[in-house]
């Protein structure tokens, strides 16, 4: 689904009012998804910046670490 949206021109650079990027939102809301790493890889390959900070100064890596997603933390490092 994510790949299809990206292929159709979805804006992967959009930000929420709190500064969260698409990566922040994906990691925050799909933590328990078996496909989260694949989703994050698609988003990064499509131009999402994994080092972008939200208004709290947190990057997607911070969110992944808080959520305890070790494989995602390793990927983002």
Automatic annotation (TrEMBL):
Q: Does the keyword Repeat apply?
A: yes
Q: Using the record, list the residue span of the signal peptide; answer none if the entry has no such feature.
A: none
Q: What is this protein called?
A: Ankyrin repeat protein
Q: Which organism is it from?
A: Paxillus involutus ATCC 200175
Q: Report whether Repeat shows up as a keyword of the record.
A: yes
Record's keyword terms, sorted: ANK repeat, Repeat
InterPro entries hit by this protein? Ankyrin_rpt, Ankyrin_rpt-contain_sf
Which positions does the entry assign to ANK repeats?
Answer: 18-55, 56-77
